[in-house]
Amino acid sequence: MTHRRPATVRELRESGYRPRSVKDELRANLVRKLHDGEELFPGILGYDDSVVPQIVNGILARHDFILLGLRGQAKSRILRQLVEFLDDEIPILAGSEINDEPFHPVSRYGRLLIEEHGEDAPVAWVPRESRYVEKLATPDVSIADMIGDVDPIKAARGGHILADELTVHYGLLPRANRGIFAINELPDLAGKIQVGLFNILQEGDVQIKGYPIRLQLDVMLAFTANPEDYTARGKIITPLKDRIGTEVRTHYPATLAVGRAITAQEAWVERGDLAVEIPDFIGEIVESVAFLARVDKRVDQRSGVSQRMPISVLEIAVASAERRALRLGEKTVVPRVSDIYAARPAITGKMELEYEGELHGPDRIARELIARAAGQVFETYAGGADVEPIVEYFEEGGALQVSNDAGAKACVKGFDNVPGLLELLSNVGLAAKNAGDGHWASACEFVLEALVDAKCISRTDGGGYGRARHDAPAQGQGFKGSGPFPAQS
Asked: Phi/psi class of residue 432: alpha, beta or left (left: φ > 0; alpha: ψ in -120 to 50)?
């Protein structure tokens, strides 16, 4: 039998309901989740020992807080998950635009409803999803948008004078009463609008333009900001920043493993009609490109390199491999390094370059990042392996053309002409004996790309491998000439 919820103020009072502030509610539900060992922010990876504890401390302290970090650090996703710390539903006075608490209404509408109906005033129930209000800050946001203003049409239709509180059109902040109000990209909010948030942060009330009233609101405020925005487009005014209880710094993944886990979670790589198999080294190369870009002096580090980069690169690499498989009638999609090169637009479009980078050009930088990533990842798989027979083949005039559109079987047949290449894959575990041609082709191309990065052999833009051009600038930090890769420390 379904439990009947109280439908009037009297029934609500008799049920034993006791109102509490939204910050007390968030705190109580967080305490329960901590006690029960529940996961606090599902899908948010890499923040367990840094960001999450700071957010937890802020909620336990009943603070408003701001997430400060570069783009692509899951700030907005964290804010939206705060909804999970609210009660499933709460009672309000039916018809209230600002979620009036039935026992203590703050709006003129709510007070009149109680005066007219008393304990029989109707009660409605609001789910927690409706108690989260989010606003992207833009320079054109007005006080009326945020707080409210007079509504002449409401006055005319209701027969009210303009001085009547019933003519108020409430803004986003009052409508978030008894809930969470989130502002994304706070520095983009004009300074005079930021001033309008002072009262709600300190005294818990707002003043509607042109009305001698104060609304005692109950709101938990959360903000996001990018440090670069402080000088690029605007800034958080000092008095407002002083009123925000907790500042939490977000960050990019600290390790390659965490980055790969995030990319694997977010990237869309499943195909219903074709099997998709992504070799581990391909995933590591994709993630390494982002890690290398985040320390490259030619890339503007103040702007950051979003985690969206490796996600997009992996998706395009799989799409490139899918296109090849569809054209050739292959049943399995296996990305290669050449497919990562095909994803260069996902790299160049997500990097802001310094002056030196602009001189080099984004496409050249993207190519160099991919080559360096391949070289670094190879060292983790085969550091110290003997690649001299492979290098000698090209030094003695051997050449190999590997088209991105070539089928896996044809590629493996061509790679078999390079002495020691297939044997190397077996020795270091890059491709198992029972692996398909797609994996073998991908692994062979990976080895050759690593040799290109080490400047042992050369590669043309069209996928041709040949003798090293010793006058060409080195791509990465590998050794020069033939010989084994240095073991990774």
From this structure: beta
